[in-house]
UniProtKB/TrEMBL annotation:
This is Nose resistant-to-fluoxetine protein N-terminal domain-containing protein. Residues 43-201 form the Nose resistant-to-fluoxetine protein N-terminal domain. The lineage of its organism: Eukaryota, Metazoa, Ecdysozoa, Arthropoda, Hexapoda. Pfam families: Acyl_transf_3, NRF. The chain crosses the membrane at residues 212-235, 319-343, 363-381, 426-445, 452-474, 494-518, 530-554, 574-598, 610-628, 648-673. SMART domains: NRF. GO terms for molecular function: acyltransferase activity, transferring groups other than amino-acyl groups. Residues 1-21 form the signal peptide. Residues 678-712 are annotated as: Disordered.
């Protein structure tokens, strides 16, 4: 008993002595059963259980303490998190009294702004108290980081911004009848006099994930889909292997959901004249670039934060931090394919008359995989596993249950930009919005009057770039969401700039211009003087290098250039997409040498086909993987790369399954529904041509837009 009291008093002493304890236990609402959490609270029973633990069952008391609070390990490396033992805590059931005393897990936050001190230095044999913030500040200065730029004067005190604007986060284990405030008040003598300031983040109990209507809906939908798939596959296998029927005589509607036929089509490749083969490689490499970027940013806590900061601000990480331009790569390819596959196939009036088919085709091609993911995020993903850092998954679940409709209407980047269901689905919203406005330009491009087309395209690019530049100079935003010195502006940057169609439209328009250039040179031998081709490659290389160098500079802790931020936000993506367009043009017309060979390798074809599913589903599994972790991760480049390859393989498998199980059958259904909507039957594409086009990611005549470019 005495040892326990000494330990608890020392713990309180270490965490601070000049603040007032918070009496507000803010348990967030959301996908956890709040009624259950409230129903178990009983102040009188809580006090009785604590007295029983203290005086009669010290073994169980030590079990509660053992599963709970600790001083964070590697504190001087920037780790301010100790999560205790989540599973041990929830498994506690002390049967020495009736009813049994059961464990509850909570996390609390203690602000560093209350000048916390720790016994750290000894002078003449006596312990000296040292301020935690001062220790971290000294540690940062020893690494050459200018901490003065990370501070800001406030009315109360110097509050450390960026890296130093942090809180200690602890997992505590307590009887389920108690609140964290009651537990700490009873267990820590004179806690109000000691004055520890803290807030409760969340509390968890076993089986606290309640079943809701969203779960029922998801269960019904996926069970029906599974049943249809089994029936369709059985019919297909019976006709193919038992009856040995000619494939042409098998009813295509009945085998629409056949896993056998859809898998066979997915892994069968053919040649199509004038196909942009290099896009398969660019699409696949860009998808890997997206996944590796998300891998390096998926963990919510590191045991060695300062090492992670060192890596982030080093030149070694530039190729990773520049992964945001993979998004602009996809926007550029979207614009290219939209024009390349449309010009010469329909007339302007056909586009105008069939505008509803143009929009419906795009909406319903994106919908099946997106709708399935919304259901999974709002239901099964929340139940797949658990952990002390499950908050990220829970937030996504809550957002999808409340804001599913904005995602399916592709307006989430404006209606609820800070609470998006499926965090990365903002890309699909912008993609859809760009397609909605694209006929304003496309209708002129389809005239194929070259002077008029180029005038419209150039005017569009100049106009959107000018508008975005004016917008950026008015907003004065940071140039990246990874800026450590302006970390407090991250949410504003994401909502105002990163997820804004205006500021992200220029690569799409650049892509439309290149798409027209590739279309008018389709099937022709373009002869460029060697000197000109070399100069264009040098220019493109310089443009790529400029983007990489600027991406490195804006992440430095001494970067303080708002003009540079505004210029970067306004022109970096324009520069990137322009250089990328030349790369694609050079590959198509034989001026890329081994680079074209690499991008056209057959190995890229399958990843390119399933890249939309990989894009949608990979990030959700990263949240789950991160939420499962029981302790802060020790960051190293090699361990993160191991995570990347594991997540890449998992994304590939899930993307393949989702494409076969969901995307492929609904793509066939869409073609059947819209096959007669675009014109006379004599103008319909022949079946053989349709299959070849689908195999190579090319559109049919009734699909005005390409179906495989829709990914980040």
């Amino acid at each position: 008993m005495a040892l326990t009291k000494v330990f608890l008093l020392l713990t309180c002493f270490v965490f601070g002595v000049k603040c007032q304890a918070s009496t507000i236990d803010e348990i967030p609402t959301g996908p956890f059963d709040q009624k259950l959490l409230q129903s178990v609270l009983n102040p009188e029973l809580c006090e009785t259980e604590i007295r029983h633990l203290v005086w009669q069952n010290q073994i169980s008391l030590l079990e509660f303490l053992d599963a709970g609070i600790r001083i964070p390990r590697s504190l001087l490396m920037g780790n301010l998190v100790d999560l205790g033992n989540y599973d041990q805590c929830l498994g506690i059931k002390a049967t020495s009294r009736s009813p049994a005393i059961e464990g509850k897990y909570c996390t609390v936050r203690i602000p560093l702004s209350q000048n916390l001190t720790v016994p750290f230095q000894f002078t003449n044999g006596q312990m000296k108290l040292v301020n935690v913030r001062d220790l971290i500040t000294q540690r940062l200065k020893s690494r050459g980081i200018d901490t003065d730029r990370l501070m800001r004067n406030t009315e109360e005190d110097l509050v450390i911004e960026g890296l130093l604007n942090m809180e200690l986060k602890f997992g505590i284990c307590l009887p389920k009848t108690c609140t964290p405030h009651e537990w700490i008040t009873y267990m820590l003598t004179n806690v109000s006099m000691v004055g520890l300031k803290y807030t409760t983040e969340i509390c968890r109990l076993p089986n606290d994930k309640q079943w809701v209507v969203f779960d029922t809906l998801a269960t019904i939908v996926f069970l029906l889909l599974a049943l249809i798939t089994v029936i369709s596959t059985s019919y297909d296998l019976h006709c193919t292997f038992t009856l040995k029927l000619d494939p042409k005589k098998i009813n295509p509607t009945n085998r629409m959901f056949s896993l056998y036929t859809n898998t066979k089509r997915l892994v069968t490749f053919g040649k199509t004249a004038n196909a942009l083969e290099c896009l398969d490689g660019i699409r696949s490499v860009s998808m890997m670039w997206v996944i590796i970027g998300h891998t390096f940013s998926m963990y919510s806590s590191y045991a060695n934060v300062l090492d992670a900061v060192d890596f982030l601000t080093s030149s070694d990480s530039t190729w990773i931090s520049s992964g945001i331009f993979a998004v602009d790569t996809f926007f550029t390819m979207t614009g290219i394919l939209l024009v390349y596959t449309t010009v010469g196939k329909i007339k302007p009036m056909q586009l105008i008359k069939g505008l509803h088919f143009f929009y419906l085709n795009r909406i319903f091609r994106l919908f099946p995989l997106l709708g399935a993911l919304v259901l999974l995020e709002g239901s099964f993903y929340h139940r797949i596993t658990d952990g002390p850092q499950w908050g990220g998954v829970a937030i996504n679940t809550d957002n999808c249950r409340r804001w599913w409709w904005t995602t399916l209407l592709y307006v989430q980047n404006y209606v609820n930009p800070r609470e998006i269901c499926i965090p990365h689905s903002w890309y699909l919203a912008i993609d859809m919005q760009l397609h909605i406005i694209s006929p304003l330009i496309l209708v002129w491009v389809l005239t194929n009057r070259r002077k008029l087309v180029w005038s419209v395209l150039c005017a569009s690019i100049i106009g959107i770039t000018t508008a975005a530049t004016i917008f950026n100079f008015f907003k004065n935003l940071p140039s990246t969401n990874a800026s450590l010195i302006r970390n407090d502006e991250q949410d504003r940057y994401m909502a105002v700039f990163y997820q804004n169609t205006l500021t992200r439209a220029s690569p799409f328009l650049i892509g439309m211009a290149y798409g027209y250039l590739l279309n008018i040179t389709k099937g022709k031998k373009v002869k460029l003087p060697g000197v000109l081709a070399t100069l264009l490659w040098i220019l493109a290389g310089f443009m790529f290098a400029t983007v990489f160098i600027m991406s490195y500079n804006i992440l430095q802790l001494d970067w303080d250039n708002q003009l540079g931020d505004n210029m970067y936000n306004s022109f970096a993506r324009l520069i990137w997409s322009t250089a990328l367009g030349w790369l694609i043009f050079a590959c198509v017309h034989g001026y890329a040498g081994p680079l074209n060979w690499f991008l056209c390798l057959p190995v890229w074809k399958l990843p390119a086909r399933i890249s939309y599913a990989m894009f949608l589903y990979h990030y959700a599994f990263m949240f789950i993987y991160s939420g499962m972790k029981r302790a802060p991760i020790f960051f190293t480049f090699s361990s993160t790369m191991v995570d990347f390859f594991a997540l890449l393989a998992w994304s590939y498998i899930v993307g393949f399954v989702a494409t076969v199980f969901i995307d492929a059958p609904f793509s066939i259904l869409l073609k059947m529904m819209m096959g007669g909507g675009g014109g006379k039957k004599r103008r319909e594409p022949r079946p053989a041509k349709t299959e070849a086009q689908v195999e190579n990611g090319e559109p049919t005549r009734t699909e005005i837009t390409n179906v495989d470019e829709k990914k980040e």
